[in-house]
Amino acid sequence: MISLRIGTGRSPRPGSLWRDRDFLIFWCAQTLSVAGDSFALIAVPLLVLNVTGSATQMGLLTGVAGTASVAAGVFAGVLADRFDRRRLLIACDVIRLVLFATIPVVWAFGTHIWLLYAVLPLAAAVGMVFQVTYVAAVGGLAGEGRVTEANGMLYATAAAAGVLGPTLAGVVAGRFGPTAAITINAASFALSALGVLLTRSSRYAVASAETAGPAREGRPWRELLAGAEFLFRQPVLRTLTILLSFFIFMTLGLTDIVIYRLKHDLGQSDSVVGVVLGVGAVGTMAGSMLVARVRRSLGFGPSWIGAQVVSGLAILSLGLAGSVWGVAAIMALYLACVSVAGICSMSLRQQVTPPHLLGRVTSAFWTIHFSLGPVGAAVLGWGAEHRGATTVFVVAGASCLVLALVALLTPVRQRHPERA
């Protein structure tokens, strides 16, 4: 663990993460929250598909929600750096609890697709604020020396919860309907809020108003730009931001296409969809448990680029898999690599960013990173419905391989960019 930091100095705080009460409470609460999120991950596409039968509608809804998330990302970092992060996390959870709870309540009186277009973008926007604040909070809770370990622990147990979550979501959706699964997701936000409430507020502080300097002097547009300026001054972060923007274009809607392939092409039930995505989550858990060791052994560049190569090959293979278990196994491999690359990228940002800028840098990264995602999700949905899921997987996989090759020619290939 590390102590609170003033300016950019970072001094280690002795002790194990396993003995840190605040981190353990935070860890457990977020694990339960992710388990609930996995219900919505399954239930919302199923709700749309069951009512409309359209992959285009699935992709469009994902795209609209993604657009709202990108828009919120512009301001999320300022909120995370300006306001009490603990209170902000709790507020985001409470708002999402209310938003998701409205879906089963209204749906009880009839099917209303319009409600999803109203609720999900708002929930996505609040979710972006939560995620930016969450990343900034982990930096303070764990510290630079243990941030990769902490991220790995959070991802691993979240993935473990995600193994059971999609399976149960599929069963619940198949037996009681997708709205029942969404109800469980709403309840999970209450657990997350309670967990954050039980941690000490002092663990979320990073700098006083004096040390934050001009960023606190009421210059909102300067604050908005501070994160982007830092990103683009750092060569590795700059290149990662650009490469990952194209990666998200090809992959944001991938889960929708997998669900469409299982339901439309392979004729599987909602329960089977849940099982397949649950098996896929095992890959996320495996990647999260291995990422700290992989990065120590290979360094950042080889770990990140290698994960991208295997991800591209896995997506290509999804277009060729003709069995349910083949899709499940490939999804596990794909998600393992995504977690390795994602944790490496996030940990590097946490390591090289001054604490008082971490919220804005994270916000700027995700805003730019996700900017092409909504368009990509809509395009993938349209492509699956009109050209077939196989074509979409082949094009997306080949594009990811090209991005990995481009990365070999950039500063991303460095083994230890955090030392620069």
From TrEMBL:
* Major localisation: membrane
Report which superkingdom the organism of origin falls in: Bacteria
PANTHER family, per the entry: INTEGRAL MEMBRANE EFFLUX PROTEIN-RELATED, MAJOR FACILITATOR SUPERFAMILY ASSOCIATED DOMAIN-CONTAINING PROTEIN
Transmembrane residue ranges: 23-48, 60-81, 88-109, 115-141, 153-173, 179-198, 240-260, 272-292, 304-325, 331-349, 361-382, 388-409
* Membrane-protein topology: Multi-pass membrane protein
Which species is this UniProt entry from?
A: Nonomuraea roseoviolacea subsp. carminata
Q: Name one Pfam family in it.
A: MFS_1
Name assigned to this protein: MFS family permease
